[in-house]
Design goal:
Order of helices and strands: HHHHH
Number of strands: 0
Structural class: mainly alpha
Strand content: under 5%
């Protein structure tokens, strides 16, 4: 009950009359990347060139009664449309570039971590190889073992020979 009372006693805080719509930054980023990618294609440039050529041709050669952006006014509407397109294109392209830079930064950090791990693994393996070399130096080789066994065998045989000669006499 105390929990309910404390919630009821607490003020809600400041309320605004106008609420800002929720904007998912990831969605806006994906849209800006698509927009920037589309504007950088040859198809877009060809389409834009054809659109402007038709616009200028229509408003230059068509009768004045059907022209919607007369040449006498220096194609004011076309200028406004191109300015509006540029005013939207520039920030969207910058947003897409920022997202690319963020991705590159994350990839660089992952590559750096991977390189550190590879270096640590390589150093560990180098230490292990060095330890194995030291251990192998302490081990007797097959030739050394054969020589030692032959030497021990000779000693045993040498000790056995005098005993046989004493028994035989």
């Amino acid at each position: 009950m105390a929990k309910i009372d404390s919630q009821m006693e607490r003020p809600l805080g400041r309320r605004s009359v106008l609420r800002m719509p929720y904007v998912d930054h990831e969605t806006v980023g994906r849209i800006s990347e698509r927009f920037a990618r589309a504007m950088g294609t040859g198809l877009f440039l060809i389409g834009m060139t054809i659109f402007i050529a038709i616009w200028i041709t229509w408003n230059t050669l068509a009768p004045e009664s059907v022209q919607f952006d007369p040449r006498g006014l220096n194609f004011t509407l076309l200028t406004l449309l191109l300015s509006m397109q540029a005013s939207y294109a520039a920030p969207l392209i910058l947003l897409a570039q920022n997202r690319d830079a963020d991705r590159d930064r994350v990839k660089f950090e992952q590559d750096r971590q991977r390189a550190e791990q590879n270096l640590a693994d390589t150093e560990y393996l180098a230490r292990e190889v060095a330890a194995l070399r030291l251990a192998l130096e302490e081990l007797a080789t097959r030739d050394e073992m054969r020589d030692e066994i032959q030497k021990a065998l000779r000693e045993v045989l040498d000790e056995a020979k005098p005993k046989r000669t004493k028994k035989s006499k």
